[in-house]
Specification:
The protein is about 10% helix and about 40% strand. The protein is mainly beta and about 350 residues long. Helix 1 (about 5-15) crosses helix 2. This is CARDB domain-containing protein. Keywords: Signal.
Length: about 350
């Protein structure tokens, strides 16, 4: 593994994919050759509604906050009444996605009129825009000053019911600054775009494993080499938790061919590895073909119950189309709970 990769992983661990990663990714984003950005002098000629990427986001584009993929302004609820905390969608039922549009941002004034689009894809990183995204719905909106909460029905949710969600505000008076194949770059540079990959994992102490999908992808036109990081704020072993990664035959063979590079993991089967490091682990040197996106599975289980949530993040790092060699290409924050039978 390169020294850059080691430094990045260490920074992620120290800040739990937070403040310690901000400076590095901000510098990478600033160097991205994506045009001239937004001219504040032209603010009077346009409107500017935005969706928060993180709690402290005030609409600046680009910004340096991380992670980009846990927007607090996107929420999934089982009814048309907004719930307090976002939930996993119920398969086969009509769910409702609530998106908050905030007006104005720093680049315009006045009422903004447009269409809010909502998309889904398999949880994970490297989802190429627009190839890997499926539209859930779209709603025409007039966003006056303040916060406008937009409700988008989500009918016929397919199994297994775990998705990345992407909201895009499309308005003639509030244009995107840039859109390319990398969702991470698009999100950082456009306050019109927000991304949410948060999944609740409800375990039964002493029960069988709960499975979640995760995908990694390559938005480049050439092969790329990637790393998947597994990070816990606190050791999951405190609740007797076990995390097994089943790479499947294709990705497992790619990992073996790349030298079986990893930290804090051990092979336990023909295509599986177990996470054994209490706070962070990684699988490296994963080669992906141009435009390819491969799915694997995560198996969670726990021996003891707990009255709190245990955050666990899985993130793909690799090169993006801006030229950044070690970029956060997307991830998922799993909120793990464990209850008695």
């Amino acid at each position: 593994m390169s020294s850059v990769g080691r430094r990045l992983r260490r920074a992620v661990w120290v800040g739990f994919v937070g403040a310690a990663l901000t400076g590095l990714l901000a510098a990478s984003a600033a160097a991205a050759p994506i045009g001239q950005g937004t001219d504040r002098a032209a603010a009077a000629a346009r409107t500017d509604a935005y969706i928060k990427d993180v709690a402290d986001d005030v609409g600046d584009q680009p910004h340096s906050f991380n992670p980009l993929w846990a927007s607090p302004d996107i929420k999934v609820c089982p009814t048309a009444v907004e719930c307090a905390v976002s939930q996993n969608p119920i398969v086969g039922a009509t769910n409702y996605v609530f998106v908050k549009l905030r007006n104005p941002g720093p680049y315009g004034t006045g009422t903004s009129t447009g269409v809010l689009h909502l998309y889904r894809t398999t949880p994970g990183g490297g989802a190429v825009w627009p190839t890997h995204w499926t539209q859930i719905g779209a709603v025409s909106v007039v966003a006056a000053a303040g916060v406008t909460t937009v409700t988008i029905p989500w009918t016929g949710v397919p199994g297994p019911g775990h998705f990345c969600l992407l909201a895009r505000w499309v308005s003639d008076s509030d244009p995107m600054t840039f859109e390319g194949p990398d969702i991470s770059t698009n999100t950082r540079y456009n306050n019109n775009i927000a991304w949410r990959n948060v999944d609740s994992v409800q375990l039964t102490a002493g029960g069988g494993p709960v499975v979640r999908p995760f995908a990694i992808g390559n938005s480049l036109t050439v092969p790329s080499t990637n790393e998947v990081l597994f990070a816990a704020a606190e050791p999951l072993q405190e609740i007797g938790a076990r995390v097994v990664v089943d790479l499947g035959p294709v990705l497992f063979e790619r990992w073996r061919a790349g030298g079986g590079v990893g930290t804090g993991v051990r092979p336990i089967g023909r295509t599986q590895v177990e996470i054994v490091e209490p706070k962070w682990a990684s699988l490296g040197n994963l080669r992906l073909n141009p435009g390819e996106r491969l799915e694997f599975s995560l198996q969670f289980s726990a021996e003891r119950a707990s009255n709190r949530l245990w955050p666990f993040k899985v993130i793909q790092f690799g090169p993006d189309t801006s030229g950044t060699k070690v970029a956060d290409l997307g991830g998922v924050q799993y909120q793990i709970s464990s209850t008695l039978r």
